[in-house]
């Protein structure tokens, strides 16, 4: 039984930087990874998808280049094997950087294998072609992330369906891609393959796409995707799936009506479940909820003293930046004896459709539920000088402003550079700036950001 000061299970976006920080403080640290260093974000999440989405944006720009007076001869050709290779090279570069940074810390031991608890602070690591390792840790950090959920639709297990991981290595463009789920993964990937040449159909049981968002935001997302040729069925539940080996047939129920759709490929993008089933948490006092998420308090401590959880394995928004921020909270509280709460943080996010949806703070729906008195500032991207000049007028900027304090409660920016504009408003919220200050703040002309002035001027009307 080898003893460590810290054992980190999973090399995700929280565990990896935490390992480095703890090791730098002189703690003997084990980082256990069953698959690839860097976890989901680097290997099959943010990095590969955003690399490929950038290629699809180029394809789209070329297809529409005549809008800018640039004419190309005939049809364009999409080289998917090259796009996949480019993506793989970026992923490998990022993964290599992680390995290098971990190897630079003498107090870190990287262990490749699957970790399970064998006691409260005891871990067994099963390794390929090697005997299992038995470890003991003063502190244990669970950073095991999440994996695709596959809904129990009759017939689905007879289909060779794709997940957000397996689709990334396909080198043939699906002719007709059915996407289950109209949220981040379904829409980012749906648009990616639509732009590369697939005919994409999205099936979403919710009343509208991106169900957490306000209806006006979801409506713009839908319109822009439909304009690119995507077919979208909302309020639609798949009831049966079958295949004859070539064509996939899916029955869907929409209210009282039934439809049948067909496709050549199926992508399952119906959410993710925490990877806790194999951890044998029953050997500890760590409690999980009914979905398998590790329960933590606002300091990310589990019910078992000395065991923490960070990232997607705990309930709440599942984003890379949340997992990264989780490690900062744990580090500052544990090592620097601070008392930072997860409740104090604002969580921004960005859906990388094109154009992007940048979000921070409350939606209109949430502000109403909280009963805040608020005003809504809305500015169409077709009123933004920069957007008109560049030819990117789809979408709008929307911000909620507290009627009494004039502070920003939340914002949704659907439009070119939507994530970047949202981040400016996030900074304004963090700095407690008022809408009036933003209305008169000097921004460089003609940036998209300059239209933050105009956004808040709409409140004067
Ligand atoms: C297609 C896709 C696109 C995404 N795009 C974005 C985006 O643009 N922006 C964004 O913010 N987020 C995005 N996300 C979400 C983001 O990837 C995750 O929120 C983030 O990676 C979570 O990190 P984590 O630290 O919780 O764990 P992960 O990165 O999931 O890492 C967990 C690691 O633990 C390992 N592990 C699990 N169990 C064990 C065990 N028993 N023993 C040893 N190792 C184990 C796993 O192999 C994995 O490497 C995307 C996700 C997907 C799937
Ligand atoms: N840009 C980003 O930040 C980004 C990008 C991709 C993924 N992610 C993260 O990855 C996680 C997973 O993303 P996701 O889009 O898979 O999950 P999600 O939980 O956001 O959405 C799942 C969608 O699938 C639908 N659904 C559920 N059951 C269904 C069924 N039987 N048939 C059809 N649709 C069904 C749901 O109504 C929902 O709209 C998210 O939590 C997100 O945080 C983030």
TrEMBL record:
Domain FAD/NAD(P)-binding as annotated: residue spans: 5-324
Cofactors named for this entry: FAD
Superkingdom in the source lineage: Bacteria
Co-factor: note: Binds 1 FAD per subunit.
UniProt-listed Pfam families: Pyr_redox_2, Pyr_redox_dim
Binding-site list for FAD: 50, 312
Protein name: Pyruvate/2-oxoglutarate dehydrogenase complex dihydrolipoamide dehydrogenase (E3) component
Organism the protein comes from: Chitinophaga dinghuensis
Lineage: Bacteria, Pseudomonadati, Bacteroidota, Chitinophagia, Chitinophagales
């Amino acid at each position: 039984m080898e003893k460590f000061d810290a054992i980190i299970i999973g090399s995700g976006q929280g565990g990896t930087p935490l390992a480095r920080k703890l090791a730098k403080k002189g703690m003997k640290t084990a980082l256990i990874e069953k698959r690839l260093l860097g976890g989901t974000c680097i290997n099959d999440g943010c990095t590969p998808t955003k690399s490929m989405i950038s290629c699809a944006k180029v394809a789209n720009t070329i297809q529409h280049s005549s809008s800018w007076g640039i004419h190309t001869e005939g049809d364009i050709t999409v080289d998917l094997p090259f796009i996949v290779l480019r993506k793989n090279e970026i992923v490998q570069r990022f993964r290599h950087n992680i390995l290098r940074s971990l190897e630079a810390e003498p107090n870190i031991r990287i262990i490749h294998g699957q970790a399970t608890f064998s006691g409260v602070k005891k871990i067994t690591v099963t390794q390929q072609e090697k005997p299992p390792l038995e470890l003991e840790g003063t502190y244990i950090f669970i950073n095991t992330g999440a994996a695709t959920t596959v809904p129990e639709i009759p017939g689905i297990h007879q289909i060779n369906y794709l997940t957000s991981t397996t689709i990334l290595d396909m080198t043939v463009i699906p002719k007709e891609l059915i996407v289950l789920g109209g949220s981040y993964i379904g829409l980012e990937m749906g648009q990616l393959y639509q732009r590369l040449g697939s005919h994409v159909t999205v099936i979403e049981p919710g009343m509208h796409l991106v169900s957490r968002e306000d209806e006006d935001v979801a409506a713009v997302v839908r319109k822009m995707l439909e304009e690119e040729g995507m077919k979208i069925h909302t309020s639609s539940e798949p009831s049966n799936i079958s295949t004859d080996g070539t064509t996939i047939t899916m029955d869907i129920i929409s209210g009282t009506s039934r439809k049948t759709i067909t496709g050549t490929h199926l992508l399952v993008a119906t959410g993710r479940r925490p990877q806790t089933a194999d951890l044998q948490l029953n050997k500890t006092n760590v409690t999980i909820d009914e979905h398998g998420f590790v329960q933590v308090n606002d300091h990310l401590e589990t019910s078992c003293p000395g065991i923490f959880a960070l990232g997607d394995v705990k309930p709440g928004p599942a984003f890379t930046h949340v997992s990264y921020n989780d490690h900062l909270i744990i580090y500052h509280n544990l090592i620097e004896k601070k008392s930072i709460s997860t409740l104090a943080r604002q969580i921004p996010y960005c859906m990388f459709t094109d154009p992007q949806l940048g979000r921070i703070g409350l939606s209109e729906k949430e502000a109403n539920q909280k009963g805040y008195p608020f005003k809504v500032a809305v500015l169409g991207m077709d009123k933004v000088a920069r957007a008109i000049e560049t030819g990117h007028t789809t979408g709008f900027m929307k911000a909620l402003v507290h009627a009494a304090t004039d502070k920003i409660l939340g914002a949704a920016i659907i439009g070119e550079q939507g994530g970047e504009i949202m981040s400016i408003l996030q900074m304004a919220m963090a700095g407690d700036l008022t809408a009036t200050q933003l209305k008169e703040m000097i921004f460089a002309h003609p940036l998209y950001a300059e239209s933050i002035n105009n956004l808040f001027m709409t409140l004067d009307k």
